[in-house]
């Protein structure tokens, strides 16, 4: 039987639906204190969302793929990358397509924690925009939905999977929450990682913390209570600290690209001469997936109104493996990673075997063996 507690993503949906108490583990990740009867039909690790999928592209079932950014230069600079998700959220409010946006932002009592916000105006959306590389439970307050109101939800890919799975069981929610938006995610850093980040920033009494933004990729920037600024690069903050201490479920997440969302965005890094992502400062640029007809229609409306810039990303199949290498590798390697878990009698996700096989096409026997033994080694050493 799947160990849903071990691979819980901490989305908070069980709390919103059943009032189940969430408790933090030693790393700060939230877990339910009791079993949730719908886990095998809702939780991302159940693999329900992969059960009837027929993939022809490792990058998901997209209607279209674009490069683009918000035409609001202030928002584009403030946002984590191109500002598309925030611009879409603002447009949904201004066009009266929704009444509120459900998303997370910084907790005003602690700069390394998050709070769920129900934003009613574009100003509210912008004030809470930007990456929060810390623990969040954006579905924990879904019980606050009001009848007759329409909402858009912005969350991590796993949050969107959980919500989409629940909406299959409760189809009336499709009218209540007509838009699901997401972003590329490589994992959720622990509370310990936050402490290490502030230590590296040499900020002992932190008043505010921006993980990214104010440029692309921008700097991890902490301001202490005396007003002094402390900065390190994105490569230092994510690459050397935050990305090295992630939630266990993130190691076996098959969807870090938000494929169950209506619209999902990631960083469309420029490439260096040796085809490596260029993390030097530029104007923000998104890779944009329209995952549904609804999402595609919305993007085209905004493009015609000149709110966003869009260009069809014709060669994304060639460039994205270089730009989003970690996402590419994780999806391709998932089948072998799960095999390693099986061999060592560990709990593993119940993803569709056909999907896993489709993703792993192109890997050589030598690569598969290397992945297998590498995963076994990490399991034995307690790193998984």
Q: Can you lay out the helices and strands and say which pair or pack?
A:
Elements: H1 13-18, E1 22-24, E2 30-32, H2 39-42, E3 64-70, H3 73-78, H4 84-94, E4 100-107, E5 110-119, H5 122-127, E6 151-155, H6 157-169, H7 173-176, E7 179-183, H8 191-201, E8 206-210, E9 219-224, E10 229-233, H9 234-240, E11 263-267, E12 286-290, H10 293-304, E13 308-312, H11 316-323, H12 325-343, H13 353-359, H14 365-380
Parallel strand pairs: 4-6, 6-7, 7-11
Antiparallel strand pairs: 1-2, 3-12, 3-13, 4-5, 8-9, 9-10, 11-12
- Kindly provide the radius of gyration, computed on alpha-carbon positions and rounded to a whole number of angstroms: 20 Å
DSSP, total strands: 13
In what order do the strands lie side by side in the largest sheet?
5-4-6-7-11-12-3-13
SS strand fraction: 15-25%
Which segments are poorly predicted (pLDDT under 50) over 5 or more consecutive residues? none
- General form: globular
Mean pLDDT: 94
Percent helix: 25-40%
Q: Quick one: biggest sheet?
A: 8 strands, mixed
